[in-house]
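Retro notes (design track)

What went well: tokenization of the new backbones is finally stable.
What didn't: we kept losing track of which sequence belonged to which structure.
Fix going forward: every design gets posted as structure first, then sequence, in one message. First example under the new rule, 264 residues:
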């Protein structure tokens, strides 16, 4: 079975032809009750900068909008891919796949209805998050999570049926996304082709990362599974190197950076 040290050795064997791509929440940032307050772990920005000076590509592939990632990751060296890979920060602006952009009105309609429904339901602890090309409903802060989950699932399912948007579950969250055949797997493959790299590792923590895990393993790369208290069984079962939490993953990133620096 491959170890964390094995992945470092592989990426460091030919850095210019290697890539490290990661999710944001739950990987570089701890999961928090209020999604708006999510932030990089202390020291993570500096490590990303070091890694991006050595590797052929360092990228973030998140369900968050690119604008969110741009606010939290300084500089231009890290490739930013948001909304599950359908939007990218390019030349100082956001590029969206045309097939996805046409669904913006449906997403806006769904977000407005979700806000109206949960405001009228007087449901404390349920939070609607607009994500531009998707909309999420979180219930991490709900007192009765079981009841909140049932309510959210029913409302999201009904709206998905009316709007044609795709329902996607996650950690104490339900999302409505565009029904386009795009996910983190297709986004990762697109980024790999653009960067022209051979050895790739992908780090994720949730169900939305499963397509990226499948893609990186199919390409002969490495899956880095960052755990946590709410990790889904199918994510924990991915054939990869396991980390207990974002803090342990950051330690590994620092080790990789140290090895790469020593090779100069």
């Amino acid at each position: 079975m491959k170890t964390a040290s094995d992945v470092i050795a592989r990426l460091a064997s030919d850095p210019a032809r290697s890539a490290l791509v990661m999710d944001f929440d739950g990987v570089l940032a701890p999961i928090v009750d209020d999604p708006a307050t999510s932030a990089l772990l202390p020291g993570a920005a500096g490590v990303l900068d070091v890694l991006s000076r050595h590797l052929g590509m360092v990228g973030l592939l998140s369900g968050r909008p690119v604008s969110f990632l741009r606010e939290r990751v300084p500089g231009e060296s890290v490739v930013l891919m948001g909304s599950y890979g359908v939007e990218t920060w390019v030349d100082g602006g956001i590029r969206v796949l045309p097939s996805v952009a046409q669904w913006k009105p449906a997403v806006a309609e769904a977000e407005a209805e979700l806000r109206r429904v949960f405001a009228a339901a007087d449901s404390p602890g349920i939070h609607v998050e607009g994500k531009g090309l998707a909309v999420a409903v979180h219930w991490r802060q709900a007192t009765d999570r079981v009841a909140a989950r049932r309510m959210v699932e029913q409302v999201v399912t009904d709206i998905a049926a009316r709007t044609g948007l795709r329902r996607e579950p996650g950690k104490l969250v339900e999302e409505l996304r565009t029904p386009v055949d795009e996910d983190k797997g297709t986004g990762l493959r697109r980024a790999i082709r653009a960067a022209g790299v051979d050895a790739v590792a992908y780090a994720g923590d949730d169900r939305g990362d499963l397509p990226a895990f499948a893609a990186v393993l199919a390409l002969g790369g490495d899956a880095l599974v960052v755990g946590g208290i709410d990790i889904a069984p199918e994510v924990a079962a991915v054939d990869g190197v396991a980390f207990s939490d974002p803090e342990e993953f950051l330690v590994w990133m620092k080790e990789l950076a140290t090895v790469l620096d020593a090779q100069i």
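Added context from the reviewer: The chain has a mean pLDDT of 94.
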